[in-house]
Amino acid sequence: MSGGRMNAVTWAALSAYAQTLEGQAVPGLGELLRAEAPRLARLRAAAQVTAQGCGVLDERGELTPQGLASARARVARLGLGRAGGEP
What is the C-alpha separation between 87 and 70, in angstroms, rounded? Predict the structure, then answer.
Protein backbone atom coordinates (compact mmCIF):
# COMPACT_ATOMS: atom_id res chain seq x y z
CA MET A 1 0.00 0.00 0.00
CA SER A 2 1.23 3.46 -0.84
CA GLY A 3 2.27 5.73 2.01
CA GLY A 4 1.50 8.88 0.05
CA ARG A 5 -1.18 11.31 1.03
CA MET A 6 -4.46 11.13 -0.81
CA ASN A 7 -6.15 14.24 -2.20
CA ALA A 8 -9.71 15.01 -1.14
CA VAL A 9 -11.31 14.28 -4.53
CA THR A 10 -9.67 10.85 -4.68
CA TRP A 11 -10.88 10.21 -1.14
CA ALA A 12 -14.46 11.18 -2.12
CA ALA A 13 -14.37 8.86 -5.14
CA LEU A 14 -12.87 5.96 -3.21
CA SER A 15 -15.38 6.50 -0.41
CA ALA A 16 -18.21 6.10 -2.92
CA TYR A 17 -16.44 3.06 -4.39
CA ALA A 18 -16.02 1.50 -0.94
CA GLN A 19 -19.81 1.55 -0.57
CA THR A 20 -20.26 -0.71 -3.60
CA LEU A 21 -20.15 -4.50 -3.37
CA GLU A 22 -17.03 -4.48 -5.49
CA GLY A 23 -15.33 -1.91 -3.29
CA GLN A 24 -16.27 -3.75 -0.11
CA ALA A 25 -14.32 -6.74 -1.39
CA VAL A 26 -11.04 -4.78 -1.74
CA PRO A 27 -8.80 -5.66 1.21
CA GLY A 28 -7.50 -2.64 3.09
CA LEU A 29 -9.63 -0.01 1.34
CA GLY A 30 -11.83 0.72 4.34
CA GLU A 31 -8.82 1.02 6.62
CA LEU A 32 -7.08 3.39 4.22
CA LEU A 33 -10.14 5.62 3.98
CA ARG A 34 -10.57 5.68 7.76
CA ALA A 35 -6.90 6.59 8.19
CA GLU A 36 -7.23 9.51 5.76
CA ALA A 37 -10.65 10.67 7.06
CA PRO A 38 -9.48 12.89 9.94
CA ARG A 39 -7.19 14.87 7.65
CA LEU A 40 -9.74 15.23 4.85
CA ALA A 41 -13.09 15.36 6.68
CA ARG A 42 -13.36 19.14 6.60
CA LEU A 43 -12.90 19.08 2.82
CA ARG A 44 -15.58 16.44 2.21
CA ALA A 45 -18.31 18.70 0.80
CA ALA A 46 -15.92 20.62 -1.45
CA ALA A 47 -14.34 17.38 -2.62
CA GLN A 48 -17.70 15.88 -3.56
CA VAL A 49 -18.69 18.99 -5.52
CA THR A 50 -15.34 18.97 -7.30
CA ALA A 51 -15.64 15.26 -8.06
CA GLN A 52 -19.11 15.91 -9.50
CA GLY A 53 -17.72 18.71 -11.65
CA CYS A 54 -14.99 16.40 -12.94
CA GLY A 55 -17.57 13.75 -13.83
CA VAL A 56 -16.36 11.24 -11.25
CA LEU A 57 -19.50 11.39 -9.08
CA ASP A 58 -23.07 12.09 -10.13
CA GLU A 59 -25.43 14.53 -8.38
CA ARG A 60 -26.41 11.80 -5.87
CA GLY A 61 -22.76 11.27 -4.92
CA GLU A 62 -22.53 7.91 -6.69
CA LEU A 63 -19.76 6.90 -9.07
CA THR A 64 -20.20 7.55 -12.76
CA PRO A 65 -18.73 5.03 -15.24
CA GLN A 66 -15.68 7.31 -15.49
CA GLY A 67 -15.46 7.42 -11.70
CA LEU A 68 -15.69 3.65 -11.42
CA ALA A 69 -12.83 3.21 -13.88
CA SER A 70 -10.81 5.82 -12.00
CA ALA A 71 -11.46 4.17 -8.62
CA ARG A 72 -10.45 0.77 -9.98
CA ALA A 73 -7.22 2.21 -11.37
CA ARG A 74 -6.42 3.97 -8.09
CA VAL A 75 -7.01 0.78 -6.08
CA ALA A 76 -4.52 -1.01 -8.31
CA ARG A 77 -1.95 1.82 -7.93
CA LEU A 78 -2.37 1.74 -4.16
CA GLY A 79 -1.51 -1.94 -4.18
CA LEU A 80 -4.75 -2.96 -2.49
CA GLY A 81 -5.46 -5.78 -4.90
CA ARG A 82 -7.37 -6.14 -8.09
CA ALA A 83 -10.66 -4.37 -8.50
CA GLY A 84 -13.47 -5.16 -10.86
CA GLY A 85 -12.81 -8.86 -11.09
CA GLU A 86 -9.71 -8.37 -13.24
CA PRO A 87 -7.38 -11.40 -13.35
Answer: 18
